[in-house]
Protein: Phenylalanine--tRNA ligase alpha subunit
Amino acid sequence: MIDDVAQKLANIKTKAVAEFFSLQNDAEIEKWRVKYLGRKGALSALFEEIGKFRTEERQYLGKAANELKKELEEKLRAASDRTKSHGKGEESFDETAPGIPVPRGTKHPLTQFTDRICAVFTSMGFEIVEDREVEKVEYNFDKLNMPDNHPARDMWDTFYIKSQIPPANGMFHEVVLRTHTSPVQLRAMETRKPPVRLVVPGRCYRHDATDASHETGFYQLEGLVIDKGVSVANMIYVLDSVLKRLFGNFVKIRIRPSFFPFVEPGHEIDMSCMICEQKGCSVCSKTGWLEMMGSGMVHPVVLNNMGVDSELYTGFAFGMGIDRLMMLYYGVDDIRLSYSGDLRFLKQF
Ligand code: FA5
Structure:
């Protein structure tokens, strides 16, 4: 019966394929070949049976049997290639051969660049300080001379977290994801006395709309220097030296008057855009300049909040955007790449 032969074909196929996967060495492969493809093997016997059928049936069954034969021969070739490339089965495993290297990751470009800036500051006698990202409103705003309802808070209106215990004034907005690293100026001075020279790398959060140079989460590096007789001239010297040491003597900086409630006077420091060489691109909003940091002389109110005698000491502070400095350094034209997790980007560093 034609159906019996078709069933036999299907059985041979199932068994041969199942056994094929457990073949370990040349001897087993040869046994498998003889069993299914040999002169007295299962397929030869089937061809003999098929030969007894009428022409059309013979043609139909012959075609199916030939297809299976081809498939098994193909498997045979693959099996011998496999054992060849592994040597001759288990016995020939070379345990002295060098291992397959495990690919290693690298530090994220932002981390690499943060390490670089910190190394420059450390070499100039600065201490590295880190602190919390979830901050009390008191430190993020009030103690930095931005009392409740101060208009400057609007600019940094942010991700508030409801506190568990309602404060006495009935407002729940007690805790924020810090909008800048400046609160760490106050935190650091709780355990230090002047003179101090410190920098604070860390993550900040804002409600900014994202574009090529803005993210809602980004990194800043805060700086604080307090001593007797510290002036704006010292600040300009330090910041100019740091940017030149990071980028080369050709960098240009531009200092503009600006306002931050926690400094007086306050400045904005811009650096020439090296991505477009000041021709104008999306990163520098076609101005040729990139806003790099806010800075200024620490406000006497803030010095007093730190417990520092503002009659005796002066200081300067600055807050730079690490992301934008990193972008200029490596020639990255969109801040969002840093947070995309895209390996095509990350593998370049
Ligand atoms: C401040 O955050 C002040 N705390 C800086 C400061 C410190 C001033 C000490 C005076 C004394 P500003 O909002 O300008 O300032 O931010 C500082 C830098 O952070 C900017 O120059 C920019 O490089 C970076 N930055 C700000 N917002 C973003 C953002 N959304 N995405 C990426 N970088 C940002």
